[in-house]
Write a structure and sequence with these properties.
Helices cover 42% and strands 19% of the residues. It contains eight helices and eight strands, in the order βββββααββααααβαα.
Length: 211
């Protein structure tokens, strides 16, 4: 296990070769801590939201009001996790515009660089870091990580403010959707998740822990 500033940390669940600020479609799964049924329960194939489950539902649908260039796909609150699709569209154009503005602003400002520094920089440029290698230092604006981090935070904040016991798992999972077939399958999977609850791995894992 790798260390950061002398502290052991769990490797990121994000794909290291992908920039999560890029336009794309992302299938997101967030679990509660220890897969506890904080968000409600399922009766006869129907999801019955707890008070915290209502918060999880409401604040997910608030995401486009607080994050730019985000559209929501299918979404479902389950007893101990949520599934949702985030669609980022427009980030890349904004990033290119910002780069152009910054380049124009600095175009006439010469900065002397020592020759040894230039040599070191040239070696680094030959082996550019993967997007994921930069993410731990700065997750950036309007990335999947920043959006999900804000969502998890606001649900926890209001649950605790109202006196409810609640914790998310520290990490979340994502699947980058690259084609229409995958999008359709995942959308259908989310829609029918409650109907298949008895066979769901999150339900089975929870039962194993209780046993």
């Amino acid at each position: 296990m790798k260390k950061f500033r002398g502290i052991y940390r769990i490797p990121s669940a994000r794909a290291q070769w992908w920039d999560y600020g890029r336009d794309g479609i992302y299938f997101i799964t967030i679990c509660t801590k220890n897969r506890k049924f904080y968000l409600g329960d399922i009766k006869n194939g129907k999801m019955l939201l707890s008070h915290v489950g209502v918060l999880a539902d409401v604040f997910w649908h608030e995401i486009p009001n607080h994050s730019k260039n985000v559209t929501l796909g299918e979404f479902k609150v389950m007893p101990n996790h949520i599934h949702g699709i985030l669609i980022l569209d427009g980030n890349e154009n904004e990033n290119e515009n910002e780069k152009t503005i910054n380049a124009n602003a600095n175009a006439n400002v010469p900065i002397p660089v020592p020759i040894e520094t230039r040599h070191a920089l040239s070696l680094q440029l030959e082996q550019p870091p993967l997007p994921g290698q930069k993410r731990f230092r700065n997750q950036g604006k309007n990335t999947v990580s920043s959006i999900i981090g804000s969502y998890k935070s606001v649900v926890s904040k209001h649950a605790h403010r109202l006196g409810y016991e609640f914790e998310w798992q520290s990490r979340f999972w994502d699947n980058i959707i690259f084609n229409q077939e995958s999008f359709n399958k995942i959308t259908e999977y989310i829609k029918t998740n409650a109907e298949r609850w008895n066979d769901d791995k999150f339900h089975q894992n929870h039962q194993e822990k209780e046993d």
